[in-house]
Amino acid sequence: MDTDCLFCRIVAGEIPATVVHETDTTLAFRDIQPKAPVHVLVIPKDHHPDIAALALADPGVAADVLAAAATVAEAEGLRTDGFRLIVNNGSHAGQEVAHVHAHVLGGAPLGPMVCR
Ligand code: 5GP
Ligand code: ZN
Hints:
- This protein is an alpha+beta fold.
- The chain has helices at 6-11, 51-57, 59-75, and strands spanning 19-22, 26-30, 38-44, 83-86, 102-106.
- α2 packs across α3 (59-75).
- The longest helix is centred in the middle third of the chain and has 17 residues, at 59-75.
- It binds guanosine-5'-monophosphate and zinc ion.
- Residues 6, 15, 17, 29-33, 88, 94-97 line the site of guanosine-5'-monophosphate.
């Protein structure tokens, strides 16, 4: 755990979150400022700064994050009409929290993939 990391502190229970799914290696909780009717963040419980670091260090847990995202999408009723899975990496992508997280977004048409 990184004691300065917001999402590590959510994993540790020090900061409250609305958890919707949990496995041995992952946690999924609602985004505090949702950008779509459904907006859930899926994280590995262990601290990794971004998806590249996670995939290199622990590809099995990277797969666990994907599987958890699919489970969340199913549970949130997003399978029929679809959903978007976004992982922002680094400053050009606008990553704000340096603990890798996948955004599960859906519940309405989401518009173009990238706004310029
Ligand atoms: P990023 O921009 O790093 O890809 O996404 C970070 C996300 O974390 C944002 O969508 C933001 O709303 C969310 N977030 C920031 N602080 C908190 C918090 O304390 N709790 C929850 N649940 N989400 C947060
Ligand atoms: Zn962390």
